[in-house]
């Protein structure tokens, strides 16, 4: 089977962990009755596991337990690659970095563990400046504990999809890399102005 | 059912179409035997349908036909929202724009239609500068036609997840908006330096 092309796969687990830590908002997919349930949540990586929390009213919450199967996507940067950036003749394509994981998920019932994991996750997300610290005695935190559930995913399968023009001559691979950096620095302001206009005070 | 919160949902179809056109690299999910198959491909929107192409060697290709169910995610910008950006007391959160669609997918067998749709897609992706034009007589294009299949998705359900701090006081909603713009302009260069180092010439 000629798919996916080997040069677009990266099996270096350290690279995949870097994606997970740099782009922690995961897409979590469970399946029930042949239908996917999809939720977007930040996950914290630790020793082959992923920790997260879900709104108890989210129908997906009922599936994040009991050693159920779960699929997780972490999405790094992406961009359209115009053939105009290459020195050789190529067809248009999209480059991207995605990590696909499979795992088994358990619910963690302890409210003490839930509270600590929220504090740990906040510390992770606030790095490196730590402009905010989630304190254990924060009253909003305690009120929230009844409305979220904690889960832990044991990762059973790792797949690194690093589609980055690796099969081109080195100067073209570097051109594609520069394009990825450039596109990912474009401002989203014009897009936001079209789809989201919060009211003035 | 108190989920998802109504203020985080946007039912304006024009906003969702803007996300689809601005962030066309979609995550396509099919389910077979209770397992998800996931492929990341650009899709072109037209009159309630989405057109795409898939590598014939991709096992997912076999499911993109026969009026099968399909779920599609389009992912707009996202960012961690530190409570430090607000003037009021809040808990940490992630903001994001995602569009979730459900549809029915058919294979389009005609090679002429496939060729034209690749030219149309390239024109769409090259806008507005059109530095590259995919010509009908491009020899690489003709050689490729045997290795990809075209599909067309009829959208049956639209869901706009615009989680953007809409329930906060307006000055805090605007602060979250500015944070989304700021974070999405940070350079990805350091991250790429850690996970992808193409060889020198």
Give the topology, please.
The structure is a homodimer of 201-residue chains.
Chain A: H1 13-22, E1 25-32, E2 35-42, E3 44-46, E4 49-55, E5 68-81, E6 93-108, H2 111-126, H3 139-144, E7 148-163, H4 170-183, H5 189-195
Antiparallel strand pairs in A: 1-2, 1-5, 3-4, 4-7, 5-6, 6-7
What does this protein look like?
The structure is a homodimer of 201-residue chains. The first copy, chain A, is α+β, with helices and mostly antiparallel strands and 201 residues long. Chain A has helices at residues 13-22, 111-126, 139-144, 170-183, 189-195, and strands at 25-32, 35-42, 44-46, 49-55, 68-81, 93-108, 148-163. Chain A has a seven-stranded antiparallel sheet with strand order 2-1-5-6-7-4-3. In chain A, strand 1 (25-32) and strand 2 form a beta hairpin. The radius of gyration of chain A is 20 Å and the shape is globular. At the A-B interface, helix 1, strand 1, strand 2, strand 5 and strand 6 of A face helix 1, strand 1, strand 2, strand 5 and strand 6 of B.
Considering the chains and any ligands shown, give keywords for the structure.
homodimer; 201 residues; alpha+beta; 7-stranded antiparallel sheet; 5 helices; globular
């Amino acid at each position: 089977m000629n798919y996916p092309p080997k040069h677009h796969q990266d099996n270096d687990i350290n690279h995949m962990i870097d994606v997970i830590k740099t782009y922690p908002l995961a897409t979590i997919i469970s399946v029930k009755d042949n239908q996917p349930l999809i939720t977007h949540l930040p996950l914290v990586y630790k020793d082959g596991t992923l920790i997260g929390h879900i709104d108890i009213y989210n129908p997906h919450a009922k599936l994040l337990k009991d050693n159920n199967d779960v699929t997780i996507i972490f999405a790094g940067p992406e961009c359209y690659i115009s053939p105009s950036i290459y020195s050789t003749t190529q067809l248009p394509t999209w480059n991207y970095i995605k990590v696909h994981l499979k795992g088994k998920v358990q619910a963690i019932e302890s409210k003490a563990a839930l509270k600590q994991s929220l504090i740990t996750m906040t510390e992770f997300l606030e790095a490196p400046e730590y402009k905010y610290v989630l304190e254990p005695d924060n009253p909003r935190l305690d009120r929230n504990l009844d409305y979220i559930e904690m889960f832990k995913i044991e990762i059973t399968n790792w797949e690194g999809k690093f589609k980055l023009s690796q099969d081109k001559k080195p100067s073209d691979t570097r051109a594609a890399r520069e394009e990825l950096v450039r596109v990912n620095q474009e401002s989203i302001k014009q897009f936001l102005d079209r789809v989201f206009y919060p009211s003035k005070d």
